[in-house]
Amino acid sequence: FWGLALVIALMMGFAVSFYWSVQSNTSAITTEPLVNISGEKHFLSVSENGRYQVFTGRLDKNEGWQAYFFDSQLAQLQKIDGTEKGEFPFVAILKNEKVVMTSFVNGEAKLHLYQISDLTRPFKTIELDEFSRIAQVAYFHDDFILMKRKKKEEKNFVYYQLDLKDEQLKQFTFSSLQQSIDFHITFSPDKKH
Questions:
Q1: Do 100 and 113 meet the contact criterion of CB atoms below 8 Å apart?
Q2: Global model pTM greater than 0.90
Q3: Which one-letter DSSP state was computed for residue 72?
């Protein structure tokens, strides 16, 4: 009888010890809203340091779609100049220092690069004549971005990798089917997957 009681006591002690070790290793996750601004917001992009956010938004139903930049440290929101009326711009933050924004006006697809320190005018514009649409941009690594794009003569939306230094394009995703659409690319934190 005493042997059985000792075994049960040891098992109970082990179970309690295991329970407390699991409890002490888990912690509650708390979250805070990134952008606490009313209105419609799409395609949020956050800088690596978490300070800056850009998004395409319509903060008032009477307003057209605009590209917005939010500095969470200073709690300042500003429009990024360059959005044409009726256009839906896509935006992304590159590292912690640049913003890339798409435009499509009069049949011309373009990418505009801005320094975060001056969002009033782009420091570089890349014309992408062979494309009829640019539908998403995402920071990939270093000076490379990925863009979901459609060539003028094709029906597929696929991703292209663009080197922002030499403006070289390389197709990143592929489809042999017509009217194939790749959408909402996302990366692992280490950018390897």
A1: yes
A2: no
A3: T
- Distance separating alpha carbons of residues 19 and 13, to the nearest angstrom: 10
Question: What is the CB-side half-sphere exposure of residue 118 using CA atoms within 13 A?
Answer: 6
Could you say which DSSP state residue 167 is in? Answer: -
Residues 6+ apart with CB under 8 A from 173: 158, 159, 182
Residues 149 and 128: beta-carbon distance below 8 Å: yes
Rounded distance, CA 13 to CA 32, Å?
39
∠ CA 118-122-167 to the nearest 5 degrees?
130
* Burial of residue 164 (number of CB atoms within 10 Å: 0-12, 13-18, 19+): middle
pLDDT per residue as tens digits for the range 34-75: 667 788 888 888 998 989 999 999 988 888 888 999 999 999
State the Rg of the chain over Cα. Answer: 24
| End-to-end C-alpha distance for the chain, whole angstroms | 59
- Residue 79 · residue 96 · CB < 8 Å: no
How far is the C-alpha of 67 from the C-alpha of 111, rounded, in Å? 13
Other Cβ atoms within 10 Å of 188 Cβ, number: 7
Take residue 121 and report the two structure tokens written for it. 């005018």
